[in-house]
Amino acid sequence: xQTSATAPAHLKTRIGFVSRLYYILRRGWKWFAIFLTxxxxxxxxxxxxxxxxxxxxxxxxxxxxxYGLLWFLIILGPVAYVxxxxxxxxxxxxxxxxxxxxxxxxxxxxxxxxxxxLILTDWLTLITEFIGMTAALxxxxxxxxxxxxxxxxxxxxxVLQGRYWTWEKIAFVFCLLNLVYIPGAILVRPSVSDIxxxxxxxxxxxxxxxxxxxxxMANIGTTIAPWMIFFQQSSVVxxxxxxxxxxxxxxxxxxxxxxxxxxxxxxxITTGSVxxxxxxxxxxxxxxxxxxxxxxxxxxxxxxxxxxxxxxAICISLASSWAFGEVFGWAHSLNNKIREAPWFYGxxxxxxxxxxxxxxxxxxxxxxxxxxxxxxxxxxxxxxxVFLIILLNDKERMGEFRNTKTQNLLSATxxxxxxxxxxxxxxxxxxxxxxx
Amino acid sequence: MSPLGEFFGRRFARVxxxxxxxxxxxxxxxxxxxxxxxxxxxxxLALVGILVVKFFTILAGR
Lengths: 436, 62
Hints:
Chain A is mainly alpha-helical.
């Protein structure tokens, strides 16, 4: 028998190559396994950010400007990453959610302001998610009351099973379903050269007018939302991520930012390819229009809209309950049983049930609610982001994980731009003719 | 006290407890932090002002 010591040189080289390859694959698999364990908050929050309102914005953007604003959506990915990455560090180091961190650092005035504003924003946004879900399933002739009841029961069962890990994996399944827009976009057979030529070169199709400004702001508004900051930080704490997990948390957030942009881009490609020039007011209307062209494309958009609303709803309602629990000192982990955390689950149930009920009220001012969501969110967003940066500069608490000068410059620039644009968006939403 | 009064009494006691717990601000109030918080208050007051104007615009329109 030939041993490796006596084997010919070419055989030795081959054995060396195979063992190196085996080692690389094993190490790669080990890293992937760790990533799968740690990943969750970043991917879920980023994909849930493409909620019912987000899908409508992207569908309308594609229908209005074709592929023309794809470049802008791609820029928003890193912007969202810069903000959300800070919540990973803050949560992992302080082991506190954002609501509790604000109370602790800035006192009761800013604490109560943030908590009240968060709950109000979340509740109103939750209503818009229910509007999106009922509209999506109405296309398949499912009555809104059935949608609201079944969705509320599923949402409740998801949190009542008693384990954060299980909740996260179920949420992952819905995140994967969000990728349904990709086959939808492929089915419309878009021209890749058109996408590259008119979508990836920064420009403002038709010039920079009021409509363009409104669409840019709407896209920013759907990419960065205040509940995301609260959700991801609380989620990092509930998942018990440690300082050593921060690099994985960053990767998780980066993958999520990539996925959210990917979904947005494919929605714009879908509506930009076949509905360009059509006035789209909501995603359900776009789905019906697409069904007239290709049944599957319209179905994919409708399923995606429902999924987006559902993902948004499960994350937004949890963000509120976590915040309540942190501030009032109630047990507030998904790992707790009902009897251990009755207030946590009670507040969750109350939020979901009341938001669902509003959608079913005949003559409820749903359009007004959708409008006010944008405005109320704008009052919370600057505060949440400014507090985030100040907290990330707390040398005593953050130690080596505090913001560097470059991170401060980058995050302060991003925050200043977002605050300016989202304020203008809110003002324009309130007074649509102000800029005309 | 009625059960409802007792319930709300307990909740308000909890709120007072939260206020006491977080009464001292832990963040160091450097000049930069003070300016930022002041700007934030002005910004929020301006937004509330806009909302009030909108509210009266809606009322006037009816």
